[in-house]
Structure formats: C-alpha cells, structure tokens
Amino acid sequence: MNELIAVIDDEPDILELVSLHLTKVNFKVKGFLNTEGFFKFLSSKIPDLIILDLMLPDSDGIEICKYLKSKEDLKSIPIIMLTARASETDKVLGLELGADDYVTKPFSPRELVARVKAVLRRKTQDSGKKIKIGDILLIDLNKFEVFVENKKIDLTPTEFRILKILTSKKGWVFTRDQILNHLWGEEKAVLDRTIDVHIKNLREKLGKAKKFIKNVRGIGYKVEE
To answer: Which helix or strand (DSSP H or E) is residue 184 part of?
Structure first.
C-alpha cells in the first residue's frame, strides 16, 4: 500500500486519530492543522489522496477543493471531505466541485479508512485508461480530460463523472437514480431531475459528440455509438 495521505484538520485530536488509523493499515500520512502548511508541502510533494476538513481557521474547505480541482497538476488528486457541517447544501456543493466522498463528524475511523481504500481503488482502476467513442470523442480518465475531434472540452467535475459513468458500459441504460448513486452514494441529497440538467449542459458542451448520449424515455440515459 504505502500511499501518501494528506490530512488537513484544525483539531489536533482528530488529526491524531485519523493519522493513527491510516498508519495502522500501512498508509503514509502527513497531517496539517492549517492550509498554509499544506500548500507549502504541496509545492514539493503530491499526495495520493487528501482528507480535507471544510471548517478551517484560515480558509474555507470548499474554496480549497475548488482551487485544487482547477489546477491541471492537482485536479486528479482524490479528495474526501471531513466536516461537522451536515447540511445537504454543503454536501451537494462539495461533491459538485469534484470531491470524491464526504464523511460527517462524528465518524467511525474504520469507516473513514474503508472510504479511503475505496476511493484509491477507483483511482487505480482508472489510471492510464482512455475511452474512445466513435471517431470523435476521447475520454482520458487519468487526466480528467475530454476531447471532441481533438479539441479539449472543459467539463465540470460532475459532468465529467456522469460521462464516465455512461461510457463505462456502452449501450447500458442507467436510470437517474443509478447515476445519482454512482455520483454520491448514500450522501445523495438532490432530485433526480438534477441529472437532466447536467446531461443537458453536457450535451451542449460536447457539440457533435452529443449524439452519443441517448435519452431512454421514462428510464434514463445511455451512451451508444
């Protein structure tokens, strides 16, 4: 294992607890009580995963997540949000920005470790993988990039993940509820019509490649060449 996990939390007890349980299962852990130390570290070392508290004294975790996902060299780092905020708005906003999971305090350290393993497992499965649809659409799962006729298309993290889900099984019809489950699991706190809005925006951005995303009336969506 030995992946490097960066943990940012301003509560020393929680930082110690998380670090202890991750170290027990052979992860390398670097803990930070504030974002200043974290960004200094980030300038010289890229972690395999980040556990990020949303309520920090010197920064807003949501803004940190937004920043990380906007940088080419950092956006592929998985992020698990760890916070006392339990409102649906915070959960949805964090996940929309591209966070991979969301754990609410108080939490089970064993569950957090299991979530870390699951997120890293998904990352490993996607590593180096490219999906081609027809002759014009290319999806690079490792770099979080999409190209239509060799032109890079800028998608939001949620749009990218929806496209990834649909292309994982060509011709397979995914219901709106299945897409929500893939995106947010048990933390889903949004209406299924939200998926329709994301699909509409995704199609507009894909241009000629929008023809591959089919609406199966009354059921959901699929990608078909």
So the answer is: helix 176-184
pLDDT tens for each residue of 3-43: 999 999 999 999 999 999 999 999 999 999 988 899 999 98
Element of type H or E holding 146: strand 145-148
Asked if residue 12 has a cis previous peptide bond (ω within 30° of 0), the answer is no
Tokens 């004294």 appear where?
57
Q: Which residues contact 214 (CB under 8 A, 6 or more apart)?
A: 221, 222, 223, 224
Taking the chain, what is the end-to-end CA distance rounded to the nearest angstrom? 38
Specify the fold of 4-126: Rossmann fold (3.40.50)
Whole-angstrom distance, CA of residue 116 vs CA of residue 96: 19
The domains of the chain are located at 4-126, 130-223
Q: What is the DSSP letter of 107?
A: -
**Quick one: CATH architecture of 130-223?**
Orthogonal Bundle (1.10)
DSSP state of 25: T
Measure the CA–CA gap between 205 and 152, rounded to whole angstroms. Answer: 10
pTM of the model as a whole: 0.69
3-state helix, strand, coil in the chain (%, to 5): 45, 25, 30
Helices (H) and strands (E) in the chain, counts: 8, 12
